[in-house]
Design brief:
This protein has 265 residues and is of the alpha/beta class.
Length: 265
């Protein structure tokens, strides 16, 4: 060790031994847009013991998302700022990197996601990385789903990218619904009541699973409830990406209350 330790006057209680190091099972760097208010909330709600999350924020100057053109401008901002966000957060010596943003990870289909992950690994000095696209793909495979419906807070230009990724990954995409939120911050203001008719429109006997993308859309608890009501997987991207991160780092905890993927796989 490079730090000296001053002995205590009294020995530590046995109950506290082994609990002195914060994040002893894993320190997860989470890369999120500066406009995001949901990812940290969701991770804190589910956090397994011994895991810590450390956010690197990508600066978004203009959060407008009210058109395809605005959406692509925001992605340009993300591409410009992600290098700095990764540079800053890896100074805390994380053990793994999780993407708390999703649209960019679907861009360019399967090949685009692979290229994105490769860039992030290089920028983070070789850290492993879980993206929303890879996480949803692997979670759906684990759950045995083949025909899926998807919804997002996105504009059509991004929904097409999401559909392309899932199709190339081997799924049949029955339907994709974009909420077309007006800004990156407006995504977090979508309520469960607003999502109920969306889910109803996407469900059907020919749909094996329903998938939500867009990390600033709060859907964790509603997804778990809908799984019970509909009798099929309903996947929140924040849950899927955390599941993917935990399993990639050797943490096999089964966590109940947040959907089948974390409880059973």
């Amino acid at each position: 060790m490079s730090c000296s330790v001053v002995p205590r006057d009294q020995p530590m209680d046995e109950d506290t031994l082994g609990e002195q190091v914060v994040g002893e099972r894993g320190r997860i760097a989470v890369i999120a847009p500066s406009t995001n208010t949901v990812v940290e909330h969701d991770l804190a709600m589910i956090r397994p013991k011994g895991i810590t999350f450390h956010t690197g924020r990508m600066y978004i100057e203009n959060p407008s998302l009210d058109s395809d053109e605005a959406f692509e401008r925001l992605l340009h901002e993300i591409r410009q700022s992600i290098t700095i966000a990764i540079r800053d957060v890896i100074t805390c010596e994380p053990t793994y990197l999780m993407m708390g943003m999703s649209a960019e990870t679907f861009w360019g289909g399967v090949a685009g996601n692979i290229a994105f992950e490769d860039r992030v690994r290089r920028q983070s000095n070789g850290l492993g990385v879980s993206t929303g696209a890879s996480a949803c793909r692997d979670a759906l495979r684990a759950l045995g789903a083949e025909r899926i419906s998807v919804f997002s807070p996105y504009q059509p230009v991004a929904d097409q990218q999401v559909s392309t990724f899932f199709t190339e990954a081997g799924f049949e995409v029955v339907a994709v619904t974009g909420l077309r939120c007006s800004s990156a911050t407006a995504i977090a203001k979508v309520t469960p009541a607003m999502l109920t008719p969306v889910i109803e429109s996407l469900d059907g006997p020919d749909v094996d699973a329903i998938v939500q993308v867009g990390t600033n859309l709060s859907f964790v608890q509603q997804a778990a409830q809908l799984e019970h009501e509909l009798g099929k997987p309903v996947l929140s991207i924040n849950v899927a990406t955390l599941w993917h991160t935990l399993r990639a780092t050797g943490i096999d905890d089964r966590i109940s209350g947040f959907g089948r993927i974390l409880a059973e796989h």
